[in-house]
C-alpha cells in the first residue's frame, strides 16, 4: 500500500523493494521512484513456477532511507497441473445421485500446487461441453453429484485445478443411476385371491401383469417379507385358521413402491375346510377383493 503524502516527510519520495529466494542470504534490491507506485514486477524466465520469495519494502526521500516493512513470503506464478487424477471410480447412490472418487496425481507429475478438483458429469445423450461441473476444495478426493435423471447412463471425468487453470482430464468412467422409486401411477393392476383347500392352506394372488417383486405383510407378523417374481401370480402357504390382512407393493433397485389397499382374507372354518376336501380342482375362487394400482417395472436382473 502506498504511503499517504502527509507521512512522506519531504520531496523525492519513493520505495525500495528487496527480495530473495526463500532460504538464501543475499537480498536483491530495486528502487521504485514514484510515490504513487503500488506494484513492482520482477521478471526472470528461468524462475521455476510457484517459487517462494521473501520480500520487504522500504521507503526513502531526499533526506535518506526509512525503515522496511516486515518480511513476507510471496510466490511466483504457477502453471496448471500437468497430469490427470487417477483411479476414477463412480457408483450409483440412488435414482438421482452418484458418488465419484479418485486418487490425486503423483507429486512429481505436476507443477505448482493443486487447489482442488473439478468433476464433470454428462448424460450419454448430451455433449461433453454441456457437462455439469462440480468443484471440490483442497485434498478432498470424492464428491456426490446430485439432481440426475433416473435410470440413465452418465459419463464422469475429473481434473485438478489451481490459480493457473485446470489440468488434463482423466479418462471418463460410466455409471447408470438407479431406477426410480416405484409409484402407483404407472399401471392399473387388478388383484384377486384364489383359495386352494389343502393343508397347509394356500393363497394364490393373481396380477394383471408380471411384477418384478412383491413385498407383503400380514397381521401375524410386524416385519415385511419379500417375494421376487417375474410372473403374474404369487403363492403363499399359510395356516387357514386365522384372519389375514395382506398389503402388496412392488419393489426395484430404486426402492419400495406404494402399498396397495389392505386386502382382508377372513378365517376359514374347519368345517368349511373339511367339507371342501383337498383337491385343487374344486378350488373356491373369491370375488375380487380390491382394485389397486401397482407399478410393474421389471428389474433388469430378473
Structure description:
- By secondary structure, the chain is mainly beta.
- The chain folds into 3 domains: 5-75, Immunoglobulins (Immunoglobulin-like); 86-176, Sandwich (Immunoglobulin-like); 191-268 and 290-296, Immunoglobulins (Immunoglobulin-like), CATH 2.60.40.10.
- It is built from 1 helix and 23 strands.
- Strands 1, 2, 3, 4 and 5 form a 5-stranded antiparallel β-sheet that branches.
- β1 (14-21) and β2 form a beta hairpin.
- The two termini are 71 Å apart.
SSE blueprint and pairings:
Blueprint: E1 14-21, E2 28-32, E3 52-61, E4 64-68, E5 72-75, E6 86-92, E7 98-103, E8 116-123, E9 132-135, E10 142-145, E11 153-162, E12 165-166, E13 173-176, E14 188-196, E15 201-206, E16 213-217, E17 225-228, E18 233-238, E19 244-252, E20 255-256, E21 263-265, H1 270-276, E22 284-285, E23 290-293
Antiparallel strand pairs: 1-2, 1-3, 3-4, 3-5, 6-7, 7-10, 8-9, 8-11, 11-12, 11-13, 14-15, 14-22, 14-23, 15-18, 16-17, 16-19, 19-20, 19-21
